[in-house]
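User: Can you recover a sequence for this backbone? Please restate the input before giving your answer.

Assistant: Of course. Working from this structure:
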């Protein structure tokens, strides 16, 4: 409750019936039970009126309009900071480290229903992050209507302590602006090279072709993985090019080219049977990093780990129905995003259901508000005891 009291109350004092922290707490309870729209939050609170009357000493459940205003006008940056501090205080931070470096995955995510396509509105995008070893963090940044993800990234990176940290992103991060911000913060990067960097991609592909012609390709540092499941075979061969001098010879030290220390080349072959026919597909991906002492195994693991943030996005959309949220006014969509990420973090720390499906976690909470109380206040009670 002290943490929620830190979030500024945007309302005027006249006509206030409920403490703002109480309204936020009911929103938190509802989201932990799988309900994040204002109407659903009001229904949930109404169905558990006796519980909230005893807990918060209220005489009436707020209307859905009240909860709508809470979601719209709450300062989402203050909310994310306060909830993030609570998580940090109550749960130990666990990082998966690679050669004493943390790995921070950053990605953009759309909330597609929170815009009106018929009026030409673009989907609402948020930047969010997760450390490897942790679930999605609650620190998010909304990409403005007249901005793009690249222009927002330097400010977002400034939120995190980047020293001894490797940053991974999709191709949006492979540009001078973002890499400069990473280096300024003392961090390192592992980033994909795609068509948005045509000059760099062309030079790397030419070098790969030259290595093959000179019969040096098979001599590169290499690691292989093979996965077989449900009639599908996937083979990944990851090679690392340690001599990047050709980049400087061809491109000079302009832009970020002078920071590239190693290049990873991933070749993925997939075989499967579809409609009685064998289908074989191949795909090549190229990655760059400024970490000189990186091994081919470490580079491959870091890139593979980036898919964890994509998996979390899938859970947000499918289990927490984020992509279906239609709240469009003010900051409602962003505050809802923060609360859903908070829900995922709390689930990760649930001793009973952390390893169970999200749906089971939500249903258990929906049927027992006392269970949510134990999740939120158990550690506080233990400290006081």
């Amino acid at each position: 409750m002290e943490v929620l009291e830190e979030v500024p109350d945007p309302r005027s004092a006249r006509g206030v019936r409920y403490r703002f922290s109480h309204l936020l707490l009911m929103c938190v309870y509802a989201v932990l039970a799988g309900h994040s729209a204002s109407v659903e939050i009001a229904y949930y609170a109404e169905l558990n009126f006796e519980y909230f009357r005893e807990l918060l000493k209220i005489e009436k459940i707020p209307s859905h309009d009240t909860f709508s205003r809470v979601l719209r006008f709450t300062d989402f940056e203050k909310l994310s900071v306060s909830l993030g501090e609570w998580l940090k205080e109550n749960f130990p931070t666990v990082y998966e480290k690679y050669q004493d470096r943390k790995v921070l995955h950053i990605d953009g995510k759309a909330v597609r229903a929170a815009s009106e396509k018929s009026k030409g509105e673009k989907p609402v995008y948020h930047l969010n992050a997760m450390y490897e070893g942790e679930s999605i963090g609650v620190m998010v940044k909304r990409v403005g209507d007249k901005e793009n993800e690249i222009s927002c990234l330097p400010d977002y990176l400034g939120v995190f302590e980047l020293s001894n940290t490797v940053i991974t992103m999709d191709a949006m991060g492979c540009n001078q602006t973002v890499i400069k911000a990473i280096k300024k913060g003392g961090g390192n990067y592992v980033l994909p090279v795609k068509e948005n960097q045509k000059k760099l991609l062309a030079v790397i592909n030419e070098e790969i072709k030259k290595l093959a012609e000179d019969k040096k390709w098979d001599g590169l540092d290499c690691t292989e993985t093979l996965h077989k499941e449900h009639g599908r075979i996937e083979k990944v061969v990851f090679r690392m090019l340690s001599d990047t001098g050709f980049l400087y010879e061809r491109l000079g030290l302009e832009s970020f080219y002078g920071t590239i220390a190693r290049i990873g080349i991933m070749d993925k072959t997939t075989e499967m049977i579809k409609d009685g026919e064998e289908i074989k597909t191949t795909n090549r991906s190229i990655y760059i990093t400024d970490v000189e002492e990186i091994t081919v195994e470490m580079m491959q693991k870091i890139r593979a780990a980036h898919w964890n943030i994509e998996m979390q996005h899938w859970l947000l959309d499918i289990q927490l129905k984020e992509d279906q949220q239609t709240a469009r006014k003010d900051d409602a969509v962003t505050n809802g995003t923060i609360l859903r990420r908070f829900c995922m973090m709390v689930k990760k720390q649930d001793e009973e259901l952390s390893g169970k499906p999200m749906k089971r976690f939500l249903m258990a909470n929906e049927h027992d508000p006392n269970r949510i109380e134990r999740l939120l206040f158990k550690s506080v009670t233990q400290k006081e005891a």
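That completes the design. The two ends are 18 Å apart (CA to CA).
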